[in-house]
From TrEMBL:
GO BP of this protein: protoporphyrinogen IX biosynthetic process
Keywords noted in UniProt: Porphyrin biosynthesis, Transferase
Source organism (scientific name): Anaerohalosphaera lusitana
Enzyme class per UniProt: transferase
Obligatory cofactor(s): dipyrromethane
Protein's name in the database: Porphobilinogen deaminase
Domain Porphobilinogen deaminase C-terminal: start-end pairs: 227-295
Catalyzed reactions per annotation: 4 porphobilinogen + H2O = hydroxymethylbilane + 4 NH4(+)
The EC number(s) this enzyme carries: 2.5.1.61
Length: 311
């Protein structure tokens, strides 16, 4: 059998994620030959602080990987699902969403605080995500959010160097990089909703590549896919794929699903958060209903203002 070529970003986290995927693929296919194709993306090269406000950030971490698939320079691309725009690229398919690790956000503090409420007055928190900033300011109007980019090690280095009092990062990324010891708190969903599909991976192939599709589809996890797709459905209804101050989390328990979502001004107010429950077969309609309800109850104004301010 010829080697399957897997495109990955070259960051430590991306490589760690891709190795996990390689292991999953080998578990279902013991003698699979794998070749890694490392690709640098705009997101890896651009270190500007205000990335997440810019509408040109669509596909920032993913479009070069998609291009490699379309040009037949690779057969499989491994993405952090939350980085993938909601608009699907013709010719490509998400063939697997493997079992998801934690969707939560995590707090790393330099002063021993173990919650957002416990941060010292006026603390400086490093994050460039408008979703994290909005929820942080909602809970603690007195703290300051300051942009923080770079890979996980760079960010933690800046924290230890005294540039910030705390950081908010994806729990999943910290787990995958073996940095769980650094975590001060995993943020509870009641306070803090994750980005749509955070913690999930999207494994993409060419739609017509039967060989790759047969192999890759074996590591798909039904529940992980359903949850991530419901969350992204809300994102798609509220926006195309650029980064907006939206959190969404779907939970599946047996035949029932519950979906929570929030949209807020990055200043922390106005802030709208709602939840809906439904039977699994009605889950898509429930996600649409939740998105409409958010928009009707203040979300439309929040979004209009956000989009105006970032132009
Ligand atoms: N855009 C950055 C990004 N994309 C995916 C992850 C973490 C892993 C994941 O959410 O699956 C991160 C870093 C972070 O948010 O802290």
């Amino acid at each position: 059998m010829p080697a399957i070529r897997i495109a990955t970003r070259a960051s430590k986290l991306a490589i760690a994620q891709t190795k996990l995927v390689c292991n999953m693929l080998r578990e279902v296919n013991a003698d699979l030959q794998i070749e890694l194709v490392e690709i640098s993306t705009r997101g890896d090269r651009d270190k500007s602080d205000f990335l997440y406000k810019s509408s040109s950030s669509v596909g920032f971490f993913t479009s070069e990987l998609e291009k490699a698939l379309l040009e037949n320079a690779a057969d499989v691309a491994v993405h952090s699902f939350k980085d993938l725009p909601t608009a699907i690229t013709p010719g490509l398919a998400i063939t697997a969403v493997p079992k998801r690790v934690s969707p939560a956000d995590a707090l790393i503090c330099s002063d021993g605080s173990t919650s957002i409420k416990g941060l010292k007055p006026g603390a400086v928190v490093g994050t460039s995500s408008v979703r994290r900033i909005a929820q942080l300011k909602h809970l603690r109007p007195d703290v300051h959010a300051r942009p923080c980019r770079g890979n996980v090690d760079t960010r933690i280095g800046k924290l230890r160097g005294g540039q910030y009092d705390a950081l908010i990062l994806a729990h999943a990324g910290l787990i995958r990089m073996g940095k769980e010891d650094e975590i001060s708190a995993v943020l509870p969903f009641e306070d803090f909703l994750p980005a749509p599909a955070q913690g999930a991976l999207a494994i993409q192939t060419r739609s017509d590549d039967k060989t790759a599709n047969v192999i890759v589809s074996q590591i798909d996890d039904n529940g992980a896919r359903l949850r991530a797709e419901l969350e992204r459905r809300i994102l798609a209804r509220l926006h195309g794929g650029c980064s907006i101050p939206l959190g969404a989390l779907a939970m599946v328990e047996g035949d029932a699903v519950s979906i929570s979502a929030m949209i807020a001004d990055p200043a922390g107010e106005p802030f709208v958060r709602e939840q809906i429950r439904a039977q699994r077969q009605d889950a898509e309609a429930a996600a649409d209903e939740l998105a409409e309800s958010l928009l009707a109850n203040g979300g439309a104004e929040i979004l209009a203002r956000f989009n105006r301010d970032r132009e």
